[in-house]
Write a structure and sequence with these properties.
With 302 residues, the chain is of the alpha/beta class. Helices cover 23% and strands 28% of the residues. It folds into 2 domains: 2-110 and 235-300, 3-Layer(bba) Sandwich (FAD/NAD(P)-binding domain), CATH 3.50.50; 120-231, 3-Layer(bba) Sandwich (FAD/NAD(P)-binding domain), CATH 3.50.50.60. It is built from 6 helices and 17 strands. The longest helix has 20 residues, at 281-300. The radius of gyration is 21 Å and the shape is elongated. The model has no long low-confidence stretch (mean pLDDT 94).
Length: 302
């Protein structure tokens, strides 16, 4: 019997482990893949307070070592289900069942990929899923954003202040995002629109050098030389293990307030899996601290 089981060893989950252990609670962290979450793919973090330059891998390793040094137990097993038995919860993995008094879900969300050959190997070498994280690396360079929603439009507007040229590639002839943002982009001389098209090939040497774009109406294929490609075609929340007991929003994210409380007493949500407006490293860490504090208070009232 653990006090708290944390599902996910990304920044939110590991921060929660640190706060829970400092509060004197026994902690088990379950992680399906490797510690660190998506941040390990970021070559240089520049927007985290007091750490102007640190690689994602180094950041993840430091927080992992901090959590384990405090006594958090980390087991690499994929969570398959959560059972709620009131004051006792059971977290089920493929290997065994673990019991606890409170659960913090910090499984995050995955960037929806384009599904193209070499896409994974080019992450950090020309392909990014976060303009605010990596945009500064493309000052005065040529980039493209793929997508048609608010995220893609906001990314393009952000990049227009950094890059020399920004292409926006959308599979339709109109955008789903806010018209005000579209209008702002159309006023920028360095923004170019490619409608009714999809990215069908990535060209690369050791880094991305360009893409091939196919017009959906004519089938015509054209090449675009690029230094960077920002993919903003949506995210997929990692909710498979608990969607039967936790209330989700229409996008599949856990409904919770800033207190990270879910609809089930004793189960909390932290990080990118939670319905929220900003998904950044600093907000993931903040959620971890809030969720752990909430879980400790919940346990102390049992």
């Amino acid at each position: 019997m653990y006090d708290i089981i944390i599902i996910g060893a990304g920044p939110a989950g590991l921060t929660a482990a640190i706060y829970a252990r400092r509060a004197g609670k026994s902690v088990l962290v379950l992680e399906a893949l490797s510690y660190g979450g998506q941040i390990i793919n970021t070559p240089d973090i520049e927007n985290y307070p007091a750490a102007a330059h640190i690689s994602g891998f180094e950041f993840a390793t430091r927080i992992y070592e901090q959590a384990t040094a405090l006594g958090a137990e980390i087991v690499f097993e994929k969570t398959e289900a959560i059972r709620d038995d009131g004051s006792e919860k059971t977290v089920v993995t493929a290997e065994k069942e673990y019991k606890c008094k409170a659960v913090i879900i910090a499984t995050g969300s995955a960037n929806r990929k384009l599904g193209l050959e070499n896409e994974g190997s080019l992450v950090g070498r020309g392909i990014s899923y976060c303009a605010t994280c990596d945009g500064a690396f493309y000052k005065k360079k040529t980039v493209a954003v793929v997508g048609g929603g608010n995220t893609a439009l906001e990314d393009a507007l952000y990049l227009a202040d950094i890059a020399e040229t920004v292409y926006i590639i959308h599979r339709r002839d109109s955008f789903r995002g806010d018209e005000a943002t579209v209008s702002a982009l159309k006023e920028r001389d360095n923004v170019k629109f490619i409608y009714n098209s999809t990215v069908t090939k990535l060209n690369a040497d050791k880094r991305l050098t360009g893409i091939e774009v196919t017009d959906k109406n004519t089938g015509e294929v054209s090449s675009v030389m690029l230094d960077g490609l920002f993919v903003a075609v949506g995210r997929t929340p990692e909710n498979q293990s608990f969607s039967d007991i936790i209330t989700l929003d229409e996008g599949g994210y856990i409904k919770s307030g800033e207190d990270c409380v879910t609809n089930v007493p004793g189960i909390f949500a932290a990080g990118d899996i939670r319905a929220k407006n900003i998904r950044q490293l600093v907000t993931a860490a903040a959620d971890g601290a809030v969720a752990a504090t909430g879980a400790v208070k919940y346990i102390d009232t049992l």
